[in-house]
Amino acid sequence: FPGFVAGTGADPQCPFDWSSYNEHCYKVFKVFKSWHDAEITCRQQEEGSHLVSIQSWAESAYVARLVSNNVVLIHVWIGLSDPWKQRIWYWSDGSRSRYKSWKRGEPNNLLWNEYCVELWSFSGYLRWNDQYC
Known about the structure:
Blueprint: E1 3-7, E2 19-21, E3 24-29, H1 35-45, E4 50-51, H2 57-70, E5 75-81, E6 90-91, E7 116-120, E8 128-131
Parallel strand pairs: 1-5
Antiparallel strand pairs: 1-3, 1-4, 2-3, 5-6, 5-7, 7-8
Keywords: Calcium, Disulfide bond, Secreted
Pfam family, one: Lectin_C
Family: Belongs to the true venom lectin family.
């Protein structure tokens, strides 16, 4: 299973070991968990935290730098998933996905069981891949 990145809602003051960008807080976790367990871990960290929701290219670039500087993993979970298995993607904070940064050919739902999303290291953590949860 991949590592993961947590994010919080708007918060001008981040906890000690979290990073700040655009009034949100971020933390990279270097532990291997399923997507669902990673989301639970995020929710237990800080009030309002979830797996990271990426809403713009600028935020995507920030998260990619943060992950690149903190972890050597091939795959890193983000908060995007298809909870109803209808190829409609939602962030774990409940928002719809407007910004998209899929790797070429993705989402492909390989073997009809890829409903969670990871950052892919071979894209510099800028592109997304759907993956088995």
